[in-house]
Amino acid sequence: MTRRQVHLNVNILNAGVFGGSWRFPGTDPVASFTLDHYVRIARRAEEATFDAVFLADGPAIREDLRYRPFNSLEPSVVLAAVAAATRRVGLIATLSSSYNDPYDVARRFASLDQLSGGRSGWNVVTTAGTEAAANFGYDAEPEHAARYERAAEFVEVVRKLWNSWEPDALLGDKANRRFADPGKIHPAAHHGARFDVEGALNVPRSPQGEPVVVQAGASKDGRALAARVGEVIFTAAQTEDEADEYYRDIKSRAVALGRRAEDVVILPGLSTVIGATEAQAAERRELLAELVPPEYALARLASQLGVEQDALALDSPLPWHLLADPDEAGGSQTFYKIALGLARRENLTVRQLLRRLGGGAGHRIVTGTPEQIADAIIDWVDKGIADGFNLMPDVLPGGFDDFVDGVVPILRRRGVFRTEYSGTTLRDHLGLRTPDHVARRHEGAA
Amino acid sequence: MTRRQVHLNVNILNAGVFGGSWRFPGTDPVASFTLDHYVRIARRAEEATFDAVFLADGPAIREDLRYRPFNSLEPSVVLAAVAAATRRVGLIATLSSSYNDPYDVARRFASLDQLSGGRSGWNVVTTAGTEAAANFGYDAEPEHAARYERAAEFVEVVRKLWNSWEPDALLGDKANRRFADPGKIHPAAHHGARFDVEGALNVPRSPQGEPVVVQAGASKDGRALAARVGEVIFTAAQTEDEADEYYRDIKSRAVALGRRAEDVVILPGLSTVIGATEAQAAERRELLAELVPPEYALARLASQLGVEQDALALDSPLPWHLLADPDEAGGSQTFYKIALGLARRENLTVRQLLRRLGGGAGHRIVTGTPEQIADAIIDWVDKGIADGFNLMPDVLPGGFDDFVDGVVPILRRRGVFRTEYSGTTLRDHLGLRTPDHVARRHEGAA
């Protein structure tokens, strides 16, 4: 019997997931502004038969730029460039449903899918924060529920646009002078609460039917959206219980909505700190902690928790009386829930919590030898609480090289990870079926 | 004394500028949906030391898809992929100022500029047509003047964003743990009639200072915009008089606005039909005409002129009494003016006009041997009525190969076209200076 297979994406988070990654010895601190950085990592990911490379995003500066890199280059542009330098690895880019138009988003991912031979995926995010809002003409961040309602309709429109061309609508028939068959091209004709989009899309149907839709909902609204539209779902889980609860909740929600459980691939985030020995891994982890100025770490945590910096004392517990119920908090609820859960469960001081978070978004950090990392990965997949992981190496590209060289061979030896791609599209890699074309009626259409 | 140098872009218009290009013998009719098509042409352009490759665009289907290819893949995504496959050639993509947000556009071009080492250019268009409007939630095309007012403010915001980082704001100073200097990063803090954009942009200053701004204004509003913001200006001119009038008008408008004449590079469109002999060129031209179904050509012209198809009779003159004054016409005034000028000047029947237009947007078509094409190019540049041309080969890639193999060596031999790139950025190729950083006051900024 075949063992459950592991799916792996690599998240190219600038110089690495840790706040001090850019200062790590040997790291080029500004490499993430160059194409070579992305191409180098994507080629290694392809060599290691990863499902995809992944780019997070937000259209605003939210970090304190004195201390670390930040979301910068626009992901669809970066991954288009990466597409030209790779052949098989999937390409997942984040674009906001709050600050874009559905026609443009549908078109950019359909274009990326054409150019890459069917390797594109769209990570739908609703984009927390007033900074982004202020870059798009809004005084304040749109209300949480409103962002999710918009996201749901946004994805609906995008999918209608992706279905505007029947698979055989493009002919290119020179002899019979028929370039395309307009009878097989249908307007989206979407007229909803938030969007009016006529269509049709001006890009033929995607090589993989539709680009893969990725989501990372953590809040109540977010989980509902993920279960409804997500084909790959990122999550942050520090413990088996959290992972198990999320996995079962999302899959059962999806099934309740008429989807098949296997049409949803759930990938928790996994930050790795790899050493040849346990001691070396621990030493690396120690160095990564030291590279983050403590005054910065404290200010960032205060901002993420929505409290004044004065309310946090390094050697005291969190100021629980000041913290909102996670479901009531605005902003990114993923981080909020994870951080509070971690601090409460392990009774951490602020200093200890900062160390556990590593300057990241609250994802699980595993420190150890390649064997230990492989064990951690296989354990959750075997237990059926993850379909694989969204890998966030501590330092890029070095920490990812260590994973490819050290961990991937172990996963392959144990028969849980492919040794070569069996298909050509991102859907093939993920084991997701190609969606049937959704025929549209012409109701209300021109 | 050095002769005036020729600047050349190649416009990758799907399978070529003619309506029947996709049916030309040897042409792959659906190549323009593949990355290889763009990479192949861009690499040849680079080998021939062209200034740039250029992609037109419109976010809607406007063509009758039965008969010809259409604007499809999103240009910034396509050129990002091309960036990874080339090293020197410039990359100019069209994006609409009517159906995008300034922060997103500023960011995509700044990203493309980072990835390509300073080779990006943005062709600002206002996008005529109800089809595009209906894809972005509008019942009708925004009024002509309103589109140009929006475009002017849009470019202003984009440039503020491109200037939000001082050239030395990015530090990457590991030892002193300073990633960037926030004192050198400024909000755009734009609060205008149409846009409120706080900034700063989350991309450091472009390798070429700012991406190059390209414009193609033909109407009164369009010329005003081109003279104000355009660094490269595309135009359609059928005759020396038209080219001369446009060239002098734009340069003098620019100078009146405080710009230097040499900061504006004016490139008329040039469609080429090349044959080893005059007879072969004429034969090729004949075949290209035959490949367009006449019923389609007639319907398209009627639509472009805004009249019913019944109003056009193939062997009669244009129905002048039905045609609006070009300045009053909506839609693309470039085409309208050119077509009417051509028909009136040469007293053409509808059939003759269709043949002269070749199914394109009204650009000048030169048919002949490589020597004749080179003569035509040098003539206008020597006369000071063009700084070079926006080349639109009849058939792609074949017609462009003929240009590179046949015409470029002649231009080089005559000393009017570079034999190698002297610089690395698009600005270098165009002879445009790198703009000084525009310091922003913090007025009204956070």
Automatic annotation (TrEMBL), chains A, B:
Highest rank taxon of the organism: Bacteria
Keyword Flavoprotein: yes
Enzyme superclass (EC): oxidoreductase
InterPro entries the UniProt entry points to: Diverse_substr_monoxygenases, Luciferase-like_dom, Luciferase-like_sf, NTA_MOA
Record key words, sorted: Flavoprotein, FMN, Monooxygenase, Oxidoreductase
Assigned EC number: 1.-.-.-
Domain Luciferase-like: 26-385
One annotated GO molecular function: oxidoreductase activity
Gene3D superfamilies, A to Z: Luciferase-like domain
Family, per entry: Belongs to the NtaA/SnaA/DszA monooxygenase family.
Name this protein carries in UniProt: LLM class flavin-dependent oxidoreductase
Species of the source: Nocardia aurea
Classification of source organism: Bacteria, Bacillati, Actinomycetota, Actinomycetes, Mycobacteriales
